[in-house]
Amino acid sequence: MADAIVRLVAQTLNIDPALISDESSPENTQGWDSLASLNLITAIEEAFSVELSLPEMMAMHDVGLVRAVLLRKGVVING
User: Fold this and answer.
1) Which of 32, 34, 51, 64 is 20 to 30 A distant from 25 in Cα terms?
2) Looking at the whole model, is its pTM more than 0.70?
3) Is pLDDT above 90 for 77?
């Protein structure tokens, strides 16, 4: 079952959540371009009620790193 991060990434990129893993990144995920990255950052901030700094945004190279940044900010990620 996909967790909230996977579902958000899939919804933002308009792809099947089954295609998303912690290793998913712009380099290996169809539709994840620079505009999708900006949309994803906005969606993350809204969905998880966080404000991401520029260094945090730049650190999110894949879904696993998105998860790590959110966990450091105290976000509890549920299914």
Assistant:
1) 51
2) yes
3) no
